[in-house]
Amino acid sequence: MKFYIKLGLWFFVCILIIESVSMLFLHNTVVQSLVDEELHSLQARGNSHRDVLEMSFNYETLHHIAMMESQTDTEVVITNLSGDVVEASNEIDTGIQFILQQEVLNLPRDGQVLQADWKDQKYIATVSPFDDSQGNQGYVYMLKSNNLIQAFIGKLNDHFLVAVALILFFLLVTIIFLLKVLTRPLISMKEATKKLSTGDFSVTLPVKSNDEIGELSKSIQTLANDLSYLKKERNEFLASISHELRTPLTYIKGYADIGRRKTLSEEERMHYLTIIHEESEHVHQLLQELFELAKMDENMFTIQKQSVRVNDFVSTIYDKARHVFLAQGHQLELYCRGDWTVEVDPRRFEQIILNLLDNALKYSAEHSVTKINVEKQNDDILISIKDEGQGIPSEDLPYIFTRLYRVDKSRSRLTGGFGLGLSIVKELVEAHNGTISVESQLGTGTCFTIRLKESFDEDSFTH
Ligand SMILES: Nc1ncnc2c1ncn2[C@@H]1O[C@H](COP(=O)(O)OP(=O)(O)OP(=O)(O)O)[C@@H](O)[C@H]1O
Ligand SMILES: [Mg+2]
């Protein structure tokens, strides 16, 4: 069964039960108070007849009372103490007889209700005793035919039925309207997810509300966008990889073909084999880096953090890298203004810094100066690597951490990395719960800044 039909039925049944119970309760209360009211007024009328009789008990008064009652929808029967009828406004039928036969003992002066059953009896009735100073004693019975009361209640029931029917009708209309409004976004979400599962990510879900349904709709939309982005990225990634592989493989194949020629001198053959070796090395390196990235994606690589003194740590790397810089006619400087501790995996963190230094070296002209700067800002340790190189155009800046992205699209061997270095750096920094940011100006230089939380181990507290 469809969800909204189920929901609607539940609503309907619940409200129907609540409505029936409250209507029954209301109906009973109304009927009960109506009958009470009738009995009360019968008793009051009986009492006032009694007062008149006690003032003057004679034939005229008796007759007058009976005549008055014969004109109304109530009846009066006056009896003496032993129950003989003295006067009555109507014939004494079996219903009246049944009431007169009831025993009345210790009757209070204001009388009492004799018969309150309006369903099964012919009359409801009250009785009031009279006793004047001349010794005239007896009872005034007041009666009202239940036919009248039943007819009135019948009319009341009709009104109740109309009310119930109207309420049910409006209830149905409201439920149908509510369900339409409530389930419309759910149905479009269901269709959207169905579309997603078939691989079609072109989903647009309007977010109309700020509630949970709106949130869900937003989440599905985000999921669809992410999936579509991932699909696009994967395709581009595969295209770039195959491109990256095709170039060295073309070289390898080409030079292998030439190398097989019998007429080749040993020297020439050696030359071609060297090229083949270099290109294979290139492919090997690419696969190595891709494998590294894949491991990161699978969360298969582990970071083994330990407390490290930034000063010593960066100095060691600096010593290693300085020679490489010098050998290529560059300068590397280190500024570390303090001694702080951070929690890092030394092997991975060295990889991060070396990668950034490699870029600084690769994308700077000769004789330029690269500076490593370590400082503290609030509780953060900032490690920045600033070069005086060619800089990165501002339109490329947002993408440089993307896999296989390179500013120089020509992929020439000379400027040639794979565009994987920075994406590996970013993943590694994030695995250390740090962040990396970049500032760059074309022609002036680039500065990468890594931000890490300072760690306070026992050692640093003693300082
Ligand atoms: N310090 C820098 N100065 C100028 N451009 C830079 C610098 N660092 C990175 N870039 C630009 O960002 C691109 C991406 O850098 P990334 O390190 O990811 O790749 P790569 O150095 O080309 O290759 P790989 O590091 O995989 O060998 C580079 O191709 C380069 O265009
Ligand atoms: Mg690089």
Q: Helical stretch count?
A: 10
Side-by-side strand order of the widest sheet: 2-1-5-4-3
| CATH superfamily (homologous) name of the largest domain | Histidine kinase-like ATPase, C-terminal domain
Radius of gyration: 51 Å
Helix content: 40-55%
Describe this structure in words.
- The chain has 463 residues and is an alpha+beta fold.
- It folds into three domains: 3-153, Beta-Lactamase (2-Layer Sandwich); 212-297, Orthogonal Bundle (Helix Hairpins); 306-461, Histidine kinase-like ATPase, C-terminal domain (Heat Shock Protein 90, 2-Layer Sandwich), CATH 3.30.565.10.
- The chain has ten helices and twelve strands.
- A five-stranded antiparallel β-sheet has the order 2-1-5-4-3, with helices on both faces. Strands 7-9-10-12-11 form a five-stranded mixed β-sheet, covered by helices on one side. It has a two-stranded antiparallel ribbon with strand order 6-8.
- Helix 6 (266-297) packs parallel to helix 9 (421-431).
- The protein is rod-shaped and about 160 Å long.
- Magnesium ion (MG) binds at residues 355, 358-359, 417, 421.
- The chain crosses the membrane at residues 7-26, 160-182.
